[in-house]
Write a sequence for this structure.
């Protein structure tokens, strides 16, 4: 199995009828401000350095972000918060990501999602998560990261499930980091969603500190 093979399988996936219907509906209807854009409207592949030591896991594509652009955290407010922080930490070549055809390069970092299709109201059900986790599991198995970063509680719980962490005493908390039985580190942060960033639950300073922690763990 290779990342290329995973993405080929991913792009043909139609396991979740509700998500297939919704991603394609959003790609047809479009947001008015993007009416002249051609939407991706398919499962969104992982993005980044295939030799990365850092593996980042988000929740799912945004309806008019990744579902439109076809690239992780590209073209929406979550990406507008994530990529500047990655740039300051030295993982991204530029501070903004607007298109899968721009010059963005990630170094030593790979980004993936729990679920690769945009869900209605950003809400996934258990079956949809279960259907998509094999893609995440395969990516982690190939990349073998030293540090895994969970963007939010659902990502955290999904990583625990993929890595079969049952008896290890860890719990989600922003800024927490855990050494796993696999000898990799798991770092937790609130998701950079508009709900978290605009309310001040997640600030720029808090988020930058997470990536500083990641750098410190890589240097160990």
């Amino acid at each position: 199995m290779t990342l290329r093979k995973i993405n080929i399988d991913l792009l043909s996936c139609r396991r979740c009828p509700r998500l297939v219907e919704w991603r394609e509906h959003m790609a047809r209807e479009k947001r008015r401000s993007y009416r002249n854009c051609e939407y991706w409207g398919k499962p969104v592949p992982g993005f980044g350095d295939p030799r990365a030591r850092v593996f980042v896991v988000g929740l799912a594509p945004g309806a008019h972000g990744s579902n439109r652009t076809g690239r992780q955290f590209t073209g929406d407010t979550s990406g507008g918060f994530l990529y500047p922080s990655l740039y300051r930490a030295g993982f991204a070549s530029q501070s903004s990501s607007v298109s899968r055809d721009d010059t963005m390069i990630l170094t030593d970092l790979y980004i993936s999602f729990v679920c690769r299709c945009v869900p209605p109201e950003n809400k996934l059900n258990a079956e949809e998560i279960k259907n998509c986790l094999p893609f995440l599991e395969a990516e982690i198995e190939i990349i073998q990261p030293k540090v895994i970063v969970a963007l939010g509680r659902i990502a955290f719980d999904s990583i625990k499930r993929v890595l079969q962490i049952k008896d290890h005493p860890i719990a989600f908390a922003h800024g927490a980091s855990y050494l796993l039985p696999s000898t990799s580190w798991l770092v937790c942060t609130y998701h950079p969603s508009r709900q978290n960033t605009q309310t001040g639950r997640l600030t720029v300073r808090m988020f930058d500190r997470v990536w500083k922690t990641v750098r410190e763990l890589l240097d160990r």
Residues 23 and 41 are 5 Å apart (CA to CA).
